Amino acid sequence: MNEIDDIFCLYDKRKFSETVKLGIELLTSIGKKSLITEKEIRAITRALSAANKEYLYQDYFTLFKFYLSIYNLNSNFEPYPNSKFFYQFAAFNVASAIHLYIQGKIDKSELTNARSLMDALVTKKQIDDEIHNYAVEVIKIADDIDDGIFPYYTVELELPFSLPFKDSIISLNDNQYNIKKVQINTNKKDTVTSDFGDRYFSIIKFTVKGFTSTNAFWEGASSLEKNDSNLDLFISATNDIIRKSILIHDKINIRLINQSDINALPIVQYNGEGTKFAHSIIWGFGCSSAADILSHNKVELEKQSLILNDNAFSTNLYEEILADALIEKGRSNNTPSFYLLNASLEAMIEFYLLRFSSKFDLLKTTERFLSGESACNSCKLYSKYSEELGSDEKRPAMAPSVFAQIKELSNICDIKGSKKRKLNKYVSKVRNDKLRNKLIHGKEKCISDTDLSESFKSFNLIRELFLEIDSGFISSRAESERNFDFEYRSSEEIILFINGVDNVNEQDMLYLEAIDKNPKYHELINAYSAFLFNNGHAERGVDYLKKSMHLSRNNPNYLGNYANHLVNQGEFLKAEELLIQALKINPKHVNNLGNYAYLLAELKRYDEAESMYLESILINPTHSSNIYSYACLLVRVGKFKDANFFFSRAVGLDPSNKKYSNDYKYFLTVFNPES
Predict the structure, then answer these.
(1) Mean pLDDT, residues 618-630 taken together
(2) CA nearest to 145, candidates 95, 216, 188, 200
């Protein structure tokens, strides 16, 4: 049985993930052939259908793109493009594009292409009310995204114990899970109890920016790689909050959760306006009545804000291990807690060693040191090892001990005297080598509360010492940077100097110092605004952009920058007013012409957008960004031959730009402008 027959067989057996995987593999072999058979077309169709059924967004998008590129409208292959199947395929392609666009895996032009194809089919005819309604809904979501309104979904977990918080709703900014809001409610149930005798259970509800299949995966699974399920990822997010809780308030009685604690996981997908799009329930393995830990702990409100904030999901490795150690300590599992604490100590020393070495541009040297390599290949240890082997083979690397790392850290930070002695003393107390030996040789069976408390006390003192060094530590390089006198320099000199600093936090601090000494340098303030936008601090960036606009009211650069911000916020009319004002000041400002053309296209004023793009290109025929954007507009309005010319021009001007080249390849594959 060959690969194609396997696809048919697996599909018939409803093994859809395996069908998709083989379909993706088939693309590689088909891509090398000049002639594609009807059987191969049908196999790809089966893989597409399987990806649809499993909500494998990324695989589906890849398969459908290939399907479009090989399909000939005049062929005798089935299904025909005007069939129910093609209509359904195109609708799910829009859903896949929405998901992948929000995940940052495709750009807006690919979402626009998917939407345009479906839009054309919807206006032609209606095939099956259910499929048609689905198509209309995904087109609406795509249009909302065009207007800056993104879909979201919610996930609820009912925990087998209560979280130590008052009922609350917390809004969050950027984090690894894309969670925008966390809602926590704790209720009392009369039908269940616990070892602690109370009956309180928390429900944690996450609101997430994104588009999920609702019944399987958060990320939109691919058959070729293992993805975490919604259940796994939200358990991970909840455990991040639990770890933060124990780090802030180490007296509460709590533990991490796993799949066995979760009974059900309701997931609801909404469009950007809050209308329900789809919903499902994932059944877990747990049951509330099976809870083994239950206590209605409370964290003070002032401490609660330290846990539930934008950094809720950003603990360091050593902090994660420390949280686990504290949880075991709270459950009187002293021996596991002791060894976890020591693991956290080693991770913390390495964390600060790398952190401090980066301030001296010693990061590569330190990484080599931590890997155990020697910078001196001619030392006696190396030569003796080679002589004994009778070869040129080098002595194998040996990772440095904790105390060797402490010594290296002391040299980097110039830690001397009593501070160095304290550091070594506290490390020895945490490690407690005598107790370790007794445990290994069976002279002690467990670790006493006193010994464990002593280790934790010493760990906290080390941590405080590192934090003190970190907050007050200024490297010799940073010291020389401080000697740069901001008061007697131009904006250009200051910006050039700050841009030469490697550390982002240091750059931020230097910008603020420079602006404090030169509050009327609008170029400097605008540069800081751009720095904030580029580093994910949009709200502060807007504030400083407005300050620069106040100081230089008729600056077309600043007006254009603020208009771009408004476009990103979906405030198109206000943005247009600013761009018109900016272009009155400088009618030949190429960036503003291009940005205004983009805005007009978003407003579906395509003729005006075309005219504006052409005007900008006449002024600067080598402006690759405007040329590329104009090509995308031409695709949008169906002028494929013209689009081909301008895509080619953009790629020629900037051949290293992967976005340009990838979009051009996709354009050639799907639209075949020369045919």
Answers:
(1) 91
(2) 95
In degrees, to the nearest 5, what angle opens at C-alpha 117 toward C-alphas 112 and 120? 120
Average pLDDT over residues 493-509: 79
Report the 10 Å Cβ neighbour count for 52: 22
Options 1.25.40.10, 2.60.120.1130, 1.10.3090.10, 3.40.50.970; CATH for 3-146 is 1.25.40.10
* Position 50 pLDDT exceeds 80: yes
Share above pLDDT 70 across residues of the chain, in percent, rounded to a whole number: 78
> Is the confidence at residue 637, as pLDDT, over 70?
yes
User: Which residue has 């499929």 as its token pair?
Assistant: 131
DSSP sequence for 224-286: TS---BHHHHHHHHHHHHHHHHHHH-TTS------GGG-SEEEEEEE-TTS-EEEEEEEE-S-
**Quick check: 145 and 101 in contact, CB under 8 A?**
yes
Whether the model pTM is above 0.90: no
Q: Which two tokens stand for residue 287?
A: 């049951």
Q: Which CATH superfamily is domain 479-671 in?
A: Tetratricopeptide repeat domain (1.25.40.10)
Q: Please, is 28 exposed, middle or buried when counting C-beta atoms within 10 Å of its C-beta (0-12, 13-18, 19+)?
A: exposed
Question: How far is 456 from 252, CA to CA, in rounded Å?
Answer: 16
pLDDT at 300 over 60: no
Name which of 530, 534, 535 is nearest 547 in CA terms. 530
What are 276's strand-pairing partners?
Answer: 270
The residues with which 268 forms a beta bridge, in sequence order, are 154, 279
Pick the closest to residue 477 from 526, 510, 516 (CA basis): 510
Confidence of residue 579 (pLDDT cuts 50, 70, 90): very high
Kindly tell me the sign of the dihedral angle through the C-alpha atoms of 223, 227, 231, 234.
negative
- 3-16 mean pLDDT: 87
Phi-psi region of 274 (alpha: psi -120 to 50; beta: other; left: phi over 0): left
How many other CB atoms are found less than 10 A from the CB of residue 398? 12
pLDDT digits (tens, 9 = 90+) for 535-563: 878 888 888 999 999 888 889 999 999 99
